[in-house]
């Protein structure tokens, strides 16, 4: 029928997944992959280029060893139960149809994506810390007032004791 649901075993979606994996593996071997890798870790690369290179080479070596053949990828696909995950994805898409605001999409620039995720959290945390700071400053002010009042009371009592001692003598 013309229902909105998509068959979880849809060969089009599986084919797209295979194409994406193949494209990913081809790009791993491309000459520009290291430049792309360090562009994601620019600050670290500038501070420790040799370490960044070493991390990249170890990562590539282990990844290529792990994915040396299609068999491993097929195992990952079967173990990952992709059909069930695609079904969950369909359910999420159905739920999202009623939402009015647009869903978040990655920009393709990891730094911007990380910033867009971290900045609201950090701003919220900063406002929380400001609130706590204000509360502590207010507590400290009250304690300081109590200390001053206590000192004044002590001074009054000392004055009273001195006057009574003088009167008694």
From TrEMBL:
Cellular location(s): Chromosome, Centromere, Kinetochore; Nucleus
GO biological process terms held by the UniProt record: cell division; chromosome segregation
Keyword Cell inner membrane appears in the UniProt entry: no
What's one Pfam family here? Nnf1
Question: What is the predominant subcellular site recorded for this chain?
Answer: nucleus
A GO CC term?
A: MIS12/MIND type complex
Q: Which keywords does the record carry?
A: Cell cycle, Cell division, Centromere, Chromosome, Kinetochore, Mitosis, Nucleus
Q: Where are the transmembrane segments?
A: none
User: Has UniProt tagged this entry with the keyword DNA-binding?
Assistant: no
Query: What name appears for this protein in its UniProt entry?
Result: PMF1 factor
Q: Origin organism of this chain?
A: Upupa epops
């Amino acid at each position: 029928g013309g229902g909105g649901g998509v068959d979880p075993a849809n060969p089009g979606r599986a084919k797209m997944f295979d194409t994406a994996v193949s494209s990913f593996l081809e790009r791993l071997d491309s000459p520009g992959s290291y430049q792309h890798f360090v562009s994601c870790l620019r600050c670290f690369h500038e501070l420790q280029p040799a370490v960044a290179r070493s991390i990249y080479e170890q990562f590539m070596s282990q990844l290529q060893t792990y994915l040396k053949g299609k068999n491993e990828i097929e195992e990952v696909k079967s173990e990952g139960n992709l059909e069930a995950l695609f079904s969950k994805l369909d359910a999420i898409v159905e739920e999202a149809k009623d939402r009015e605001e647009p869903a978040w999409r990655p920009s393709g620039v990891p730094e911007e994506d990380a910033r867009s995720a971290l900045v609201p959290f950090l701003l919220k945390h900063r406002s929380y810390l400001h609130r706590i700071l204000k509360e502590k400053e207010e507590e400290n002010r009250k304690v300081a007032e109590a200390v001053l009042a206590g000192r004044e009371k002590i001074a009054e009592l000392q004055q009273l004791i001195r006057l009574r001692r003088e009167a008694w003598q």
